[in-house]
Structure formats: structure tokens, C-alpha cells
Write a structure and sequence with these properties.
By secondary structure, the chain is an all-alpha fold. The protein contains seven helices and no strands. The longest helix is centred in the last third of the chain and has 23 residues, at about 95-115.
């Protein structure tokens, strides 16, 4: 699939802070689910869809094993719906939590794509 280089970051921006700074699912996890779905999706049967779910479930298990959680709130220890977002931006949490979460998600997606193709 070909995509304009600017499209994916624009689509994924709303995942930041656990879906719009709500502390929900880590944006790296949501983006990983999208990437896995791009590869496997549900092009035909529900069986194909269940394979996609299986790969995403394995991704989540591995991510949570490595990172200790899969929600932004649990990963950062902050409530981003409050003023904690200012605390986040002025702290080392992005470097210590967010960037490693993105790197971990990226690596795990590549591993799972290789294992399942």
C-alpha cells in the first residue's frame, strides 16, 4: 500500500496521551493495532478477521509484558485529563516512557508480521 508520508502521522495524532489525552489505550498500542490491521485486516471472511484479532491480542500481551501496562495513565502514572499534562510535558516521562513505548510497539509489530506471514 502506498500512502502519502504525511497521512499516517495526521491520522495517528489523536492517539497521543491515550486517545486525546484521556489516559486510555497508549497511542503506540492503538497505532500498532492499525498497522497489524493494514496487513491482515478482514478482507474476506470472519476467519480472516479472527486471525487479525489473534495477532493483535498477542501484540497486546507482549507489549504489556515488556512495558508493564498498555494504558497511557498506567504507563505514565499521570491523569492527563487534569493539569498533569503540563507536568508530563515538562518531565522526562516522554523520553523514559512514551518514546520507549513507541519503539517497543514498532519492534513487536515487525516481529509479529514476520512470524505471521
Amino acid at each position: 500500500m502506498d500512502f502519502d508520508d504525511d497521512v499516517i502521522p495526521l491520522i495517528g495524532f489523536g492517539f497521543a496521551g491515550g486517545i486525546g489525552n484521556t489516559g486510555a489505550v497508549c497511542g503506540a498500542v492503538a497505532g500498532a493495532a492499525m498497522a497489524i490491521s493494514l496487513k491482515f485486516g478482514r478482507a474476506g471472511s470472519m476467519e480472516e478477521g479472527f486471525k487479525t484479532f489473534s495477532v493483535i491480542q498477542e501484540f497486546r500481551r507482549r507489549f504489556e509484558d515488556e512495558m508493564g501496562a498498555f494504558t497511557c495513565r498506567d504507563l505514565t502514572g499521570l491523569d492527563l485529563t487534569s493539569n498533569d499534562v503540563q507536568q508530563l510535558m515538562s518531565s522526562d516521562i516522554p523520553q523514559k516512557v512514551c518514546f520507549p513505548a513507541v519503539a517497543t510497539a514498532y519492534r513487536l509489530v515487525l516481529e509479529l508480521l514476520k512470524e505471521n506471514t
